[in-house]
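Lab notebook, bench 4. The sequencing result for the construct came back, and we need a structural model before the next group meeting so we can plan mutations. Quick request posted to the team channel:

Model the 3D structure of this chain.
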Amino acid sequence: MPEIEASPTADLAHFTGLDQRLLDAVRSIRVLSAVSWPASKERRFLDALASGRETIPKIEYARRDFSAQRAELEAISTQCDDSHPLGAYLQRSARSWSVAAQMLEALGTPQVTAHSIELYGKPDDALPGGGQSNLDAARYFLSIAEKLGDGLAADSDDDEVIPAQSLRGEVQREVDAFFGAGVVKVELDDDLTAKAAAGATRIRLRASTAFSEYDRSQLLAHEAFVHTLTALNGRAQPILKSLSRTSPRATGTQEGLAVFAELMSGSIDIARLKRISLRILAIEKALQGADFIEVFRYFRKHGQNARDSFTSAQRVFRGVPLSGGAAFTKDNVYLAGLLTVHTFFRWAFKRRRLDLLHNLFAGKFALEDVILLAPCFADGMLVPSKYLPPWVQSAQGLAGKLAFSLFANRIRMGRIGEWD
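Done. Here's the predicted structure in C-alpha coordinate form:
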Protein backbone atom coordinates (compact mmCIF):
# COMPACT_ATOMS: atom_id res chain seq x y z
CA MET A 1 0.00 0.00 0.00
CA PRO A 2 1.68 3.28 -1.04
CA GLU A 3 2.23 6.02 1.50
CA ILE A 4 0.62 9.39 0.84
CA GLU A 5 2.88 12.39 1.14
CA ALA A 6 1.72 15.03 3.57
CA SER A 7 1.55 18.58 2.26
CA PRO A 8 3.56 21.03 4.39
CA THR A 9 1.04 23.75 3.51
CA ALA A 10 -1.94 21.83 4.86
CA ASP A 11 -4.33 23.83 6.98
CA LEU A 12 -3.94 21.90 10.21
CA ALA A 13 -6.54 24.05 11.94
CA HIS A 14 -9.03 22.86 9.32
CA PHE A 15 -8.30 19.23 10.16
CA THR A 16 -8.43 19.94 13.88
CA GLY A 17 -11.85 21.51 13.44
CA LEU A 18 -13.15 18.62 11.36
CA ASP A 19 -11.85 16.15 13.92
CA GLN A 20 -13.65 17.95 16.74
CA ARG A 21 -16.84 18.01 14.69
CA LEU A 22 -16.43 14.26 14.16
CA LEU A 23 -16.09 13.68 17.89
CA ASP A 24 -19.15 15.82 18.61
CA ALA A 25 -21.21 14.04 15.94
CA VAL A 26 -20.47 10.54 17.22
CA ARG A 27 -20.73 11.29 20.94
CA SER A 28 -24.14 9.61 21.20
CA ILE A 29 -23.35 6.73 18.81
CA ARG A 30 -22.43 4.02 21.31
CA VAL A 31 -22.86 0.67 19.68
CA LEU A 32 -22.29 -1.80 22.51
CA SER A 33 -24.43 0.01 25.07
CA ALA A 34 -27.23 0.33 22.50
CA VAL A 35 -27.30 -3.39 21.66
CA SER A 36 -26.75 -4.72 25.21
CA TRP A 37 -29.53 -6.63 26.95
CA PRO A 38 -30.76 -5.86 30.48
CA ALA A 39 -29.27 -8.16 33.13
CA SER A 40 -32.82 -9.19 34.07
CA LYS A 41 -33.13 -11.13 30.79
CA GLU A 42 -30.39 -13.52 31.88
CA ARG A 43 -31.96 -14.08 35.31
CA ARG A 44 -35.38 -14.83 33.81
CA PHE A 45 -33.94 -17.22 31.24
CA LEU A 46 -31.89 -19.15 33.81
CA ASP A 47 -34.84 -19.30 36.24
CA ALA A 48 -37.03 -20.73 33.48
CA LEU A 49 -34.27 -23.15 32.51
CA ALA A 50 -34.05 -24.39 36.09
CA SER A 51 -37.77 -25.20 35.81
CA GLY A 52 -37.17 -27.17 32.63
CA ARG A 53 -38.24 -24.50 30.13
CA GLU A 54 -36.11 -22.99 27.35
CA THR A 55 -37.75 -19.71 26.41
CA ILE A 56 -36.53 -17.27 23.80
CA PRO A 57 -36.06 -13.88 25.52
CA LYS A 58 -38.17 -10.96 24.40
CA ILE A 59 -35.91 -7.98 23.69
CA GLU A 60 -37.07 -4.48 22.83
CA TYR A 61 -34.80 -1.70 21.60
CA ALA A 62 -35.38 2.01 21.85
CA ARG A 63 -36.11 3.72 18.55
CA ARG A 64 -33.17 5.87 17.51
CA ASP A 65 -32.86 8.66 14.99
CA PHE A 66 -29.35 9.66 14.01
CA SER A 67 -30.32 11.56 10.86
CA ALA A 68 -28.76 14.79 12.15
CA GLN A 69 -25.55 13.01 13.06
CA ARG A 70 -25.43 11.24 9.70
CA ALA A 71 -25.91 14.54 7.87
CA GLU A 72 -23.06 16.06 9.84
CA LEU A 73 -20.82 13.05 9.15
CA GLU A 74 -21.59 13.36 5.44
CA ALA A 75 -20.72 17.06 5.58
CA ILE A 76 -17.43 16.29 7.34
CA SER A 77 -16.63 13.64 4.75
CA THR A 78 -17.22 15.98 1.81
CA GLN A 79 -15.12 18.74 3.43
CA CYS A 80 -12.10 16.47 3.91
CA ASP A 81 -9.21 16.79 1.48
CA ASP A 82 -8.65 13.10 0.88
CA SER A 83 -5.36 13.80 -0.92
CA HIS A 84 -3.90 14.55 2.52
CA PRO A 85 -3.47 11.61 4.93
CA LEU A 86 -5.29 13.44 7.75
CA GLY A 87 -8.24 14.22 5.48
CA ALA A 88 -8.35 10.68 4.12
CA TYR A 89 -8.34 9.29 7.67
CA LEU A 90 -11.18 11.58 8.76
CA GLN A 91 -13.19 10.65 5.68
CA ARG A 92 -12.78 6.92 6.29
CA SER A 93 -13.77 7.33 9.93
CA ALA A 94 -16.79 9.55 9.22
CA ARG A 95 -18.17 7.04 6.74
CA SER A 96 -17.63 4.20 9.20
CA TRP A 97 -19.51 6.01 11.96
CA SER A 98 -22.35 6.70 9.53
CA VAL A 99 -22.75 2.97 8.89
CA ALA A 100 -22.80 2.38 12.66
CA ALA A 101 -25.53 5.01 13.03
CA GLN A 102 -27.63 3.32 10.36
CA MET A 103 -27.15 0.00 12.15
CA LEU A 104 -28.41 1.42 15.44
CA GLU A 105 -31.42 2.96 13.72
CA ALA A 106 -32.33 -0.54 12.51
CA LEU A 107 -32.04 -2.28 15.91
CA GLY A 108 -34.39 -5.21 16.32
CA THR A 109 -34.66 -5.83 12.57
CA PRO A 110 -32.79 -8.16 10.18
CA GLN A 111 -31.24 -5.09 8.50
CA VAL A 112 -28.75 -4.85 11.38
CA THR A 113 -26.96 -7.88 9.96
CA ALA A 114 -25.85 -6.22 6.71
CA HIS A 115 -24.52 -3.15 8.51
CA SER A 116 -22.80 -5.36 11.05
CA ILE A 117 -21.11 -7.38 8.31
CA GLU A 118 -19.95 -4.17 6.62
CA LEU A 119 -18.30 -3.05 9.86
CA TYR A 120 -17.04 -6.33 11.32
CA GLY A 121 -17.04 -8.85 8.49
CA LYS A 122 -18.48 -12.36 8.51
CA PRO A 123 -17.11 -15.81 9.36
CA ASP A 124 -16.39 -16.95 5.80
CA ASP A 125 -14.29 -13.87 4.97
CA ALA A 126 -10.79 -14.67 3.68
CA LEU A 127 -7.83 -14.22 6.01
CA PRO A 128 -4.59 -12.48 4.90
CA GLY A 129 -3.05 -14.56 2.15
CA GLY A 130 -6.46 -15.63 0.85
CA GLY A 131 -6.02 -19.36 1.36
CA GLN A 132 -8.32 -19.84 4.35
CA SER A 133 -11.25 -18.11 5.99
CA ASN A 134 -11.97 -16.99 9.53
CA LEU A 135 -14.38 -19.92 9.68
CA ASP A 136 -11.57 -22.33 8.81
CA ALA A 137 -9.43 -20.87 11.58
CA ALA A 138 -12.27 -21.18 14.11
CA ARG A 139 -12.83 -24.83 13.20
CA TYR A 140 -9.11 -25.51 13.51
CA PHE A 141 -8.73 -23.97 16.98
CA LEU A 142 -11.92 -25.63 18.22
CA SER A 143 -10.66 -29.00 17.00
CA ILE A 144 -7.29 -28.53 18.71
CA ALA A 145 -8.91 -27.41 21.96
CA GLU A 146 -11.27 -30.35 22.11
CA LYS A 147 -8.55 -32.85 21.22
CA LEU A 148 -6.36 -31.49 24.00
CA GLY A 149 -9.20 -31.33 26.52
CA ASP A 150 -9.09 -27.78 27.79
CA GLY A 151 -11.14 -28.07 30.98
CA LEU A 152 -13.86 -25.81 29.62
CA ALA A 153 -16.54 -28.42 30.29
CA ALA A 154 -16.87 -27.26 33.87
CA ASP A 155 -16.05 -23.70 32.88
CA SER A 156 -13.16 -24.00 35.31
CA ASP A 157 -15.21 -23.57 38.47
CA ASP A 158 -12.19 -24.71 40.47
CA ASP A 159 -10.05 -22.24 38.61
CA GLU A 160 -12.22 -19.19 39.21
CA VAL A 161 -10.95 -18.36 42.64
CA ILE A 162 -10.55 -14.57 42.59
CA PRO A 163 -13.69 -12.68 43.70
CA ALA A 164 -14.47 -9.58 41.64
CA GLN A 165 -13.81 -7.28 44.61
CA SER A 166 -10.37 -8.77 45.18
CA LEU A 167 -9.50 -8.60 41.51
CA ARG A 168 -10.59 -4.97 41.40
CA GLY A 169 -7.98 -4.11 44.00
CA GLU A 170 -5.25 -6.10 42.25
CA VAL A 171 -5.94 -4.54 38.87
CA GLN A 172 -6.14 -1.06 40.41
CA ARG A 173 -2.65 -1.49 41.85
CA GLU A 174 -1.31 -2.69 38.48
CA VAL A 175 -2.77 0.20 36.47
CA ASP A 176 -1.66 2.75 39.08
CA ALA A 177 1.88 1.42 38.82
CA PHE A 178 1.80 1.57 35.01
CA PHE A 179 -0.18 4.74 34.19
CA GLY A 180 0.27 6.63 37.45
CA ALA A 181 -1.98 6.95 40.48
CA GLY A 182 -5.44 8.30 39.75
CA VAL A 183 -5.22 8.11 35.95
CA VAL A 184 -7.43 5.03 35.53
CA LYS A 185 -10.15 3.88 37.91
CA VAL A 186 -11.16 0.21 38.22
CA GLU A 187 -14.84 -0.32 39.09
CA LEU A 188 -17.35 -3.14 39.56
CA ASP A 189 -20.46 -3.17 37.36
CA ASP A 190 -23.53 -5.30 38.15
CA ASP A 191 -24.97 -4.95 34.64
CA LEU A 192 -21.87 -5.71 32.58
CA THR A 193 -22.35 -8.60 30.14
CA ALA A 194 -18.68 -9.19 29.39
CA LYS A 195 -16.26 -10.01 32.20
CA ALA A 196 -14.49 -6.68 31.65
CA ALA A 197 -14.66 -3.50 29.59
CA ALA A 198 -12.20 -0.63 29.30
CA GLY A 199 -12.18 3.03 28.35
CA ALA A 200 -9.58 5.77 28.65
CA THR A 201 -10.03 6.41 32.36
CA ARG A 202 -12.16 3.51 33.59
CA ILE A 203 -11.96 -0.28 33.57
CA ARG A 204 -15.13 -2.11 34.60
CA LEU A 205 -15.31 -5.67 35.93
CA ARG A 206 -18.47 -7.76 36.10
CA ALA A 207 -19.39 -7.73 39.77
CA SER A 208 -21.36 -10.97 39.80
CA THR A 209 -18.57 -13.30 38.74
CA ALA A 210 -15.29 -14.77 39.91
CA PHE A 211 -12.06 -14.74 37.95
CA SER A 212 -9.14 -17.09 37.33
CA GLU A 213 -5.46 -16.22 37.16
CA TYR A 214 -5.71 -16.46 33.38
CA ASP A 215 -8.62 -13.99 33.48
CA ARG A 216 -6.47 -11.63 35.51
CA SER A 217 -3.50 -11.70 33.14
CA GLN A 218 -5.75 -11.53 30.05
CA LEU A 219 -7.61 -8.58 31.50
CA LEU A 220 -4.42 -6.63 32.10
CA ALA A 221 -2.91 -7.44 28.70
CA HIS A 222 -6.15 -6.93 26.74
CA GLU A 223 -8.14 -4.24 28.53
CA ALA A 224 -5.57 -2.18 30.42
CA PHE A 225 -2.47 -2.38 28.24
CA VAL A 226 -4.25 -2.12 24.88
CA HIS A 227 -7.76 -0.65 25.11
CA THR A 228 -7.09 1.83 27.91
CA LEU A 229 -3.54 2.47 26.74
CA THR A 230 -4.48 3.34 23.15
CA ALA A 231 -7.35 5.54 24.35
CA LEU A 232 -5.00 7.55 26.56
CA ASN A 233 -2.43 7.82 23.78
CA GLY A 234 -5.19 8.97 21.42
CA ARG A 235 -6.21 11.71 23.83
CA ALA A 236 -2.62 12.98 23.76
CA GLN A 237 -2.71 13.54 19.96
CA PRO A 238 -2.51 17.27 19.13
CA ILE A 239 -4.77 17.16 16.05
CA LEU A 240 -6.71 13.87 15.82
CA LYS A 241 -8.37 13.64 19.23
CA SER A 242 -10.81 11.19 17.63
CA LEU A 243 -8.04 8.61 17.94
CA SER A 244 -9.13 8.24 21.56
CA ARG A 245 -12.31 6.45 20.38
CA THR A 246 -12.46 3.27 18.35
CA SER A 247 -14.17 4.07 15.07
CA PRO A 248 -16.22 1.06 13.93
CA ARG A 249 -13.84 0.42 11.03
CA ALA A 250 -10.93 0.09 13.49
CA THR A 251 -12.67 -2.48 15.70
CA GLY A 252 -11.03 -5.46 14.01
CA THR A 253 -7.54 -4.05 14.49
CA GLN A 254 -8.17 -2.96 18.07
CA GLU A 255 -9.66 -6.25 19.21
CA GLY A 256 -7.12 -8.22 17.22
CA LEU A 257 -4.31 -6.19 18.77
CA ALA A 258 -5.72 -6.83 22.24
CA VAL A 259 -5.87 -10.61 21.70
CA PHE A 260 -2.40 -10.49 20.11
CA ALA A 261 -1.21 -8.77 23.29
CA GLU A 262 -2.54 -11.74 25.27
CA LEU A 263 -0.55 -14.04 23.00
CA MET A 264 2.68 -12.05 23.18
CA SER A 265 2.49 -11.60 26.95
CA GLY A 266 1.83 -15.30 27.51
CA SER A 267 -1.62 -14.73 28.99
CA ILE A 268 -3.79 -16.53 26.43
CA ASP A 269 -4.82 -20.17 26.90
CA ILE A 270 -6.45 -22.75 24.66
CA ALA A 271 -9.78 -22.29 26.45
CA ARG A 272 -9.75 -18.64 25.44
CA LEU A 273 -9.11 -19.56 21.80
CA LYS A 274 -11.93 -22.10 22.04
CA ARG A 275 -14.39 -19.50 23.33
CA ILE A 276 -13.45 -17.08 20.55
CA SER A 277 -13.78 -19.82 17.94
CA LEU A 278 -17.15 -21.01 19.25
CA ARG A 279 -18.56 -17.51 18.93
CA ILE A 280 -17.51 -17.32 15.28
CA LEU A 281 -19.04 -20.70 14.53
CA ALA A 282 -22.20 -19.65 16.38
CA ILE A 283 -22.45 -16.49 14.25
CA GLU A 284 -22.30 -18.68 11.16
CA LYS A 285 -25.05 -20.92 12.56
CA ALA A 286 -27.26 -17.90 13.28
CA LEU A 287 -26.68 -16.52 9.78
CA GLN A 288 -27.66 -19.92 8.39
CA GLY A 289 -30.97 -19.85 10.30
CA ALA A 290 -30.35 -21.10 13.86
CA ASP A 291 -32.44 -19.32 16.48
CA PHE A 292 -31.39 -18.24 19.97
CA ILE A 293 -32.24 -21.56 21.64
CA GLU A 294 -30.34 -23.55 19.02
CA VAL A 295 -27.27 -21.35 19.46
CA PHE A 296 -27.57 -21.59 23.25
CA ARG A 297 -27.65 -25.39 22.95
CA TYR A 298 -24.61 -25.25 20.67
CA PHE A 299 -22.55 -23.57 23.39
CA ARG A 300 -23.86 -26.04 25.97
CA LYS A 301 -22.93 -28.95 23.70
CA HIS A 302 -19.34 -27.70 23.63
CA GLY A 303 -18.98 -27.54 27.38
CA GLN A 304 -20.04 -24.10 28.52
CA ASN A 305 -22.27 -23.86 31.57
CA ALA A 306 -25.79 -22.45 31.27
CA ARG A 307 -24.93 -18.92 32.29
CA ASP A 308 -21.94 -18.60 29.98
CA SER A 309 -23.90 -20.23 27.16
CA PHE A 310 -26.61 -17.60 27.59
CA THR A 311 -24.01 -14.82 27.58
CA SER A 312 -22.33 -16.22 24.47
CA ALA A 313 -25.62 -16.65 22.60
CA GLN A 314 -26.66 -13.17 23.65
CA ARG A 315 -23.50 -11.74 22.05
CA VAL A 316 -24.47 -13.34 18.74
CA PHE A 317 -28.04 -11.97 18.80
CA ARG A 318 -27.43 -8.44 20.10
CA GLY A 319 -29.55 -6.00 18.13
CA VAL A 320 -31.14 -8.59 15.80
CA PRO A 321 -34.25 -10.81 15.83
CA LEU A 322 -33.75 -14.01 17.83
CA SER A 323 -35.66 -16.22 15.39
CA GLY A 324 -32.65 -17.05 13.18
CA GLY A 325 -31.12 -15.83 9.95
CA ALA A 326 -29.59 -12.71 11.52
CA ALA A 327 -26.55 -11.98 13.69
CA PHE A 328 -24.51 -9.21 15.25
CA THR A 329 -21.09 -10.13 13.86
CA LYS A 330 -18.71 -8.15 16.07
CA ASP A 331 -17.25 -11.29 17.65
CA ASN A 332 -16.04 -12.23 14.18
CA VAL A 333 -13.21 -9.71 14.59
CA TYR A 334 -11.38 -11.33 17.50
CA LEU A 335 -9.82 -14.23 15.63
CA ALA A 336 -9.61 -12.53 12.23
CA GLY A 337 -8.09 -9.49 13.94
CA LEU A 338 -5.60 -11.61 15.86
CA LEU A 339 -4.38 -13.36 12.71
CA THR A 340 -4.29 -10.12 10.70
CA VAL A 341 -2.38 -8.22 13.40
CA HIS A 342 0.03 -11.14 13.81
CA THR A 343 0.67 -11.07 10.04
CA PHE A 344 1.16 -7.29 10.15
CA PHE A 345 3.71 -7.55 12.97
CA ARG A 346 5.68 -10.17 11.04
CA TRP A 347 5.49 -8.05 7.85
CA ALA A 348 6.69 -4.90 9.63
CA PHE A 349 9.50 -6.75 11.39
CA LYS A 350 10.68 -8.36 8.15
CA ARG A 351 10.88 -4.89 6.57
CA ARG A 352 12.56 -3.38 9.63
CA ARG A 353 9.61 -1.07 10.26
CA LEU A 354 9.40 -1.30 14.05
CA ASP A 355 8.29 2.34 13.96
CA LEU A 356 4.96 1.19 12.52
CA LEU A 357 4.51 -1.25 15.40
CA HIS A 358 5.13 1.45 17.99
CA ASN A 359 2.87 3.92 16.16
CA LEU A 360 0.06 1.35 16.19
CA PHE A 361 -0.37 2.09 19.92
CA ALA A 362 -0.49 5.88 19.52
CA GLY A 363 -4.28 5.84 19.19
CA LYS A 364 -7.22 3.75 18.04
CA PHE A 365 -5.93 2.95 14.56
CA ALA A 366 -6.88 0.49 11.89
CA LEU A 367 -3.82 -1.16 10.34
CA GLU A 368 -4.14 0.80 7.10
CA ASP A 369 -4.15 4.05 9.09
CA VAL A 370 -0.70 3.38 10.54
CA ILE A 371 0.74 2.99 7.04
CA LEU A 372 -1.10 5.88 5.42
CA LEU A 373 -0.46 8.25 8.33
CA ALA A 374 3.27 7.47 8.56
CA PRO A 375 4.19 10.87 7.01
CA CYS A 376 2.20 12.59 9.77
CA PHE A 377 4.27 10.86 12.45
CA ALA A 378 7.42 11.86 10.56
CA ASP A 379 6.56 15.58 10.49
CA GLY A 380 5.04 15.81 13.98
CA MET A 381 1.36 16.15 13.13
CA LEU A 382 0.93 12.90 15.05
CA VAL A 383 2.97 12.19 18.17
CA PRO A 384 4.50 8.86 19.24
CA SER A 385 2.92 6.66 21.89
CA LYS A 386 3.28 7.98 25.43
CA TYR A 387 2.56 4.49 26.75
CA LEU A 388 3.63 1.16 25.27
CA PRO A 389 2.63 -2.29 26.58
CA PRO A 390 5.34 -4.03 28.62
CA TRP A 391 5.91 -6.66 25.92
CA VAL A 392 6.47 -3.94 23.29
CA GLN A 393 8.85 -1.93 25.47
CA SER A 394 11.35 -4.79 25.36
CA ALA A 395 12.59 -4.37 21.78
CA GLN A 396 14.94 -7.33 22.03
CA GLY A 397 12.23 -9.63 23.34
CA LEU A 398 9.74 -8.53 20.69
CA ALA A 399 12.33 -8.96 17.94
CA GLY A 400 13.18 -12.45 19.20
CA LYS A 401 9.55 -13.60 19.17
CA LEU A 402 8.89 -12.19 15.70
CA ALA A 403 12.11 -13.60 14.26
CA PHE A 404 11.24 -17.05 15.61
CA SER A 405 7.71 -16.76 14.22
CA LEU A 406 8.97 -15.81 10.76
CA PHE A 407 11.24 -18.84 10.55
CA ALA A 408 8.91 -21.33 12.24
CA ASN A 409 6.19 -20.59 9.69
CA ARG A 410 8.48 -21.98 6.97
CA ILE A 411 8.36 -25.45 8.52
CA ARG A 412 5.73 -27.68 6.93
CA MET A 413 4.25 -30.04 9.47
CA GLY A 414 3.33 -32.56 6.79
CA ARG A 415 7.00 -33.31 6.16
CA ILE A 416 7.66 -34.51 9.72
CA GLY A 417 6.02 -37.86 9.12
CA GLU A 418 8.54 -39.84 11.13
CA TRP A 419 7.04 -38.47 14.35
CA ASP A 420 3.60 -39.90 13.63
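Residues 130 and 418 are 30 Å apart (CA to CA).
Will bring this to the meeting.
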